[in-house]
């Protein structure tokens, strides 16, 4: 029920009361052990109560058409920003983790299988984790070849000057992974939310599932977004 409600009608919620009701329902299921802890964390982190200033959207994410317009805007104006936006939507990383991933790519610390490349991050600061940066080989090749300077300061500057919402790119990835039928456990792993206890027991399985999942997601992204760029 919650899967149908959350995925099928997520964008229809417009009020605080509707968002609050769904969060209460998630907690109700969790208290009765009808949801796994990681599923509960996923839904509570995804379903946010909109503030008055937000105008009502429950989960803020880009449509494929909006992503195409955003990328088209910067493709020739700012190549570094163009590929950073691509890296953000492909990997779903937080802003600070994007800078770390670019640094690792500069050092050529990455692996590739087919059209997908990945960087081992293994970042864990207790509250926020990041295990891997998955992206298209073409995106990784740009950062390896051009070695553009990237830091959290640079990313913050892009946010201020161009209105780039890195967290919105992250939410977009999670939203479309869910729409592709990916399990909450794998989405949590890709986005660095997997609990340590689960990670210790299922590390290899989660990585294998995540790699196959990202192949499917990145193929979808190429077809629905990148193929419409000039």
Automatic annotation (TrEMBL):
Coiled-coil regions listed in the entry: none
Keywords annotated in UniProt: DNA recombination
Domain Tyr recombinase: 57-216
Keyword NADP attached: no
Domain of life: Archaea
GO MF: DNA binding
GO biological process terms, semicolon-separated: DNA integration; DNA recombination
Pfam family, one: Phage_integr_3
Matches recorded under PROSITE patterns: TYR_RECOMBINASE
InterPro entries: DNA_brk_join_enz (IPR011010), Integrase-like_cat_sf (IPR013762), Integrase_catalytic (IPR002104), Integrase_SSV1_C (IPR031857)
Protein name per UniProt: Tyr recombinase domain-containing protein
Organism: Pyrococcus kukulkanii
């Amino acid at each position: 029920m919650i899967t149908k409600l959350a995925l099928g009608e997520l964008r229809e919620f417009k009020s605080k009361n509707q968002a609050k009701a769904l969060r209460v329902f998630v907690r109700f299921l969790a208290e009765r052990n009808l949801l796994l802890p990681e599923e509960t964390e996923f839904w509570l982190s995804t379903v946010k109560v909109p503030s008055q200033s937000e105008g009502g959207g429950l989960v803020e994410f880009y449509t494929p058409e909006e992503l195409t317009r955003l990328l088209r805007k910067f493709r020739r104006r700012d190549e570094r920003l163009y590929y950073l936006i691509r890296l953000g939507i492909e990997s779903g990383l937080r802003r600070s983790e994007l800078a770390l991933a670019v640094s690792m790519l500069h050092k050529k610390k990455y692996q590739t299988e087919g059209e997908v490349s990945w960087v081992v991050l293994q970042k864990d600061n207790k509250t926020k984790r990041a295990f891997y940066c998955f992206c298209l080989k073409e995106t990784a090749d740009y950062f390896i070849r051009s070695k553009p300077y990237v830091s959290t300061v640079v990313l913050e500057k892009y946010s201020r000057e161009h209105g780039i919402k890195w967290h919105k790119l992250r939410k977009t990835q999670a939203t479309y992974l869910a729409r592709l039928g990916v399990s909450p456990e794998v989405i949590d792993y890709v986005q660095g939310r997997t609990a340590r206890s689960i990670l210790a027991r299922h590390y290899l399985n989660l990585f294998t599932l995540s790699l196959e999942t990202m192949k499917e997601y990145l193929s979808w992204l190429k077809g629905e977004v990148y193929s419409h760029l000039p």
